[in-house]
């Protein structure tokens, strides 16, 4: 089974799931770290990931800034980060708007590199890690062409050569009139170079892509969200292990699904799916794997409002997989207030109701990631913080 996904005094509470007892579990106070280099250069964060970028075994943070850059925040080995990140340009803001990024060792030199999906430039941008968490752009010729409006990118081993490949979302395909997922296969020559994308048709306005082994054949498959106001869906494309993929199978979810996560929610050894539906009143749709790579009909769980990204993990240390989602609070809380919601897993594929926590006034924040930033054995979370006064990331350390 393979998967490839400060506000002083803030107290985040969730319920630990158990057949006999529920106990409170908390995250610590939210600490804000800027994604720019100074008060005059703060960036506009839209997506965040965590990985070890300088080889010290501590998880660092990378942030895509829609204003033509990305930033790296290196862990201080206590779970803290510098006041300002190291920012790298992806181009003029007139032609470059990064919307997603992913990290892998593309040239197999032992360091985690960065690939960026750009809304405007119609290309994938690649940055080589120098080994200490500093980056330089890979050669830009030839350009790795995508459609305009690319919204998501993931790095994963899509064939058997042990070099990481890439999959990107094309809302309207380059070679098709419908949406596609484009696959860039690594040339596997140690240079970090890729072949141009091969496109596979998916649904209407695809938004996000992840890679996971859905049918337990030891070959990674692709899962995409297809945005539609009335009939959103999850598309599954089974991989053949050579970097090629089959025809999409679609499963209905809620309205306007943005992100999806894969994990084993019921302990049967097969990966299940959960999608964050931004439309309507907001919901999470959970689809359980039947054990053959197909899925049951989805079960919806209500969310406070406008869920954006959903991730999965054992956030309360009870041995069951939980869901974490970032969303915008309703007008009753101020409409620009961002919240993280936790749905505690029961271990049987069902989840408890959402328990939420206010992060702060961070309009437009849509992304979160998880890691054990301070290496205390507890799962921590980091979210993008798009507050104009404090753009960057908010980090909350786990307490259980």
Automatic annotation (TrEMBL):
Keywords assigned by UniProt, alphabetized: Signal
A UniProt-annotated Pfam family: FG-GAP_3
InterPro entries xrefs: FG-GAP, Integrin_alpha_N
PANTHER family hit by this protein: SENSOR KINASE-RELATED
Stated name of the protein: Uncharacterized protein
Upper lineage: Eukaryota, Metazoa, Spiralia, Gnathifera, Rotifera
